[in-house]
Amino acid sequence: MVVYKLKFYDIDEQYVEYLKSFDSQVPDVTYRKNNKFVCGIVLFVNDVQYYAPVSSFLDKQKTNLQIFNKKGRVIGSIRFCFMLPVPVNVLTEKDFKSIDSTDKLYADLLRTEYDFCLSHKSEILKKAQDVYKIGCNKNHWLNYTCCDFPLLENAYLEYITKKEIESSPLLCDVKIRN
Predict the structure, then answer these.
(1) Exposure string (b/e) for 29-58, b if CB count within 10 Å is 16 or more?
(2) Mean pLDDT (whole number) for 157-171
(3) CA distance readout (Å), 53 to 6, 39, 101
(4) 109 versus 35: which is more confidently predicted?
(5) Percent of residues, the chain, with pLDDT higher than 90
(6) What is the pLDDT of residue 145?
(7) Cα angle value 109/48/75 (rounded, 5°)
(8) How far apart are CA 110 and CA 112, in angstroms?
């Protein structure tokens, strides 16, 4: 049984631009104040690790999961329709302590979002699987909202081949079920 580790990461902007050249649904990650970041690993399929953007988008949709604070107020969402296959060498783990030294409010928000994700891990992994199926099924009525996951997987493979990167080491623990 594979047990995924959920962490927050920044993705190298050049890699995101590379993916955008294949699929216009790939979201921007560069913003004026705080760049978009991802939660992952949310899915491991076809030897590819997927990461999903964490967003300030608050509305409930079939392809996202709302994130709530301890008071039950929606503070963001995980946008599974924009999941990306990402090699680990273009990821930088979020350093909450460093962020805290420059922007305490933002660091507190990140910690709240992260705590929510850890406590809803099984729901996150299930939603990622469900949305992946939608993104791979051109006949599904919500397919148009998703990135083209098979196309992005091919782009990912091309990227790691061009960059002579070994297939990404899996960022998870492997546990054997008795």
Answers:
(1) beeeeeebbbbbbbbbeeebbbbbbbbebe
(2) 71
(3) 12, 6, 24
(4) 109
(5) 82
(6) 96
(7) 15
(8) 5
Note if the bond before 176 is cis, omega within 30 degrees: no
Distances (CA, A) of 94 to 4, 70, 89, 115: 17, 22, 14, 14
Query: Cα-flanking dihedrals φ and ψ of residue 53, to 5°?
Result: -65, 140
- At 34, is the pLDDT very low, low, confident or very high (cuts 50, 70, 90)? confident
- pTM of structure: 0.90
Query: Across the chain, how many H-helices and E-strands are there?
Result: 5, 9
State the residue for tokens 């660091």: 107
List all residues 6 or more positions away from 32 whose beta carbon is below 8 Å from its beta carbon. none
Q: What's at 12, amino acid-wise?
A: D
Domains and CATH numbers, the chain: 2-170 (3.10.129.130)
CA nearest neighbour of 113 among 84, 77, 71: 77
Residue 150 CA to residue 65 CA, distance in Å, equals: 22
Mean pLDDT of the chain: 90
